[in-house]
Amino acid sequence: MPEEFKDDAYYIEKINQLRKERNAVILAHNYQRPEIQDIADLAGDSLDLSRRAAKTDADVVVFCGVRFMAETAAIVSPQKKVLLPAKEADCPMVRAVSRQAVIEMKRQHPGATTVCYVNTSAEVKAEADICCTSANVVKVVASLGDEEILFIPDKHLGAYAAHKTGKNICSWDGFCPTHFLLSPEDVKHQMEKYPEAEVLVHPECRFEVIELAHQALSTNGMVTYVKESSAKEFIIGTENGLIYRLAKENPDKKFYPASESMICPNMKLTTLERVAHSLETMEYEIVIPDEVRQPAQEALNRMLAVT
Questions:
Q1: Tens digits of per-residue pLDDT, 152-207?
Q2: Which CATH number fits domain 93-175: 3.40.190.10, 3.30.470.10, 3.40.718.10, 3.40.50.10800?
Q3: Model's pTM, two decimal places?
Q4: Are 216 and 182 contacting, i.e. CB atoms less than 8 angstroms apart?
């Protein structure tokens, strides 16, 4: 006999009950499914969510995103239990570089400063001199001296930072597959279709795409910019999950995806059922050993001191 069907309302009720029982805060990255964004206590980009969760009195943090985001939450909130509902939710760009590869890169470039994007594993962050986000990468890189800079792992974000600062940057050959999908032709097509729209793209996009845009912004940067802008139409060049939040918070404005193909499959792995299961079973817990957490925290703290 088939298992009884349970709809979204069932799981939402269960989540609401369990979050109270567990004293949990639910975080949803801007790329998550609409229904996950709706049940979250906090929505935003990865580091912002981790920092905001750290300031709560919650005992449990449920991070609806991918693994490196939950790891960051565990780094900044070692006293809290951090759960990742979709155990297999990972990031291809994160997997593209290992701690040992960073150690070898540093050996080949003695005297260089290592800047590590937050979109990396805790082990890789532990090898960095300083971290950065897509929102503060220019400020972080500009704060450094004239020495060579090793940028890990996104070559497109590294190229953007080099262009903005004029710094000598050697980037790891990594990239975000979802943002790489966006081509200049895609952007030009949408610009012709929606001539009144402003083009906002993520700095993880290819540089030739960034050159076509009105603004290159992080996801939270896009949320703020749209809210404050007098423009009424926007072409959004990032993972399409952000458009749900933008439209919800700005019902008087119109949003168009720069490309329909910009969907991260890993970001869509988290479902209401999985969030409910995570709260019920307290799975899957993210634990960062102190020997990794402490140097990773130091790299994040150096970033925060600059920004």
A1: 999 999 999 999 999 999 999 999 999 999 999 999 999 999 999 999 999 999 99
A2: 3.40.50.10800
A3: 0.95
A4: no
Pair of tokens at residue 98? 């290992």
Strand intervals (E) in the chain = 24-29, 42-44, 60-64, 81-83, 113-117, 130-132, 149-152, 169-171, 198-201, 215-216, 233-237, 254-257
Q: Encode pLDDT of 226-238 as tens digits.
A: 999 999 999 999 9
Contacts of 220 (CB under 8 A, 6+ apart): 30, 44, 45, 48, 135
SS3 label, residue 100 = helix
Domain ranges of the chain: 8-90+267-288, 93-175, 182-261
Q: What mean pLDDT is predicted for residues 214-225?
A: 98
Residue 2 pLDDT exceeds 70:
no
Torsion of CA 179, 266, 174, 303, to 10 degrees: 90
Q: What is the number of residues in the chain?
A: 307
Helix (H, G, I), strand (E, B) or coil at 178: helix
